[in-house]
Amino acid sequence: MPATDDEIKEKYLERAIRELNRFNRELYECQRCPRGPLMPVIGSGHPLADIFLLKYAPRQAEIEEGVAFYGRAGAALLKSFRRLGIDPLAVYGTVVVKCPVPDTELSDRDCRARLIEEIAIVQPRMVVVMGELALRELNALELPLAEPLEPNFGEIQTLTPSCEALFVPDIDNSLDDERAKRSFWRAFRKLGEWWADFPPY
């Protein structure tokens, strides 16, 4: 008897969970970056999310918890998702520099390239790139079939044939300044328009 759509989705989800667990174990065991006794900062959210949030490096609250988008940035984004009508369960967030090193330039190039595998596991339909450093790193990765992204805030661009991208200001730098906050919101609300047009299947 052929598998139902729900059964197929369940199998894909189980596989993504297994692969993310393996991916995170490998991060914990990696010794390439001089992070000392601190643990890497891992991604958080749905393992097969439609929306993939990408920041360059973690802030202190994320380092302390070991989870990307923990703290002020995550709380601000949850509020934004509510305003835009986006289901937070359709979101996954991560950072390029996963190890809490004193200087992000000390992070190993191969470790930053692990992002390729993380994107491949989650298989998002949209990558929201936060800030110029994250954009530079994503373009440098040369994802399979990827188009280079332009630094145009609030513009939906094609990343790969199956995934689009939205470039927005760095969320962490937008939290304490009203002008920067407005710039972030102007760009980020484009995600709400994209989500509203997204087919519900």
UniProtKB/TrEMBL annotation:
A Pfam family that the UniProt record links to this protein: UDG
GO BP: any one term: DNA repair
SUPFAM superfamilies linked: Uracil-DNA glycosylase-like
MF term (GO), any: deaminated base DNA N-glycosylase activity
Uracil-DNA glycosylase-like domain sequence ranges: 44-141
InterPro entries: UDG_Type-4/5, Uracil-DNA_glycosylase-like, Uracil-DNA_glycosylase-like_sf
UniProt keyword terms in alphabetical order: 4Fe-4S, DNA damage, DNA repair, Hydrolase, Iron, Iron-sulfur, Metal-binding
Name of the featured protein: Uracil DNA glycosylase superfamily protein
Species name: Thermoleophilum album
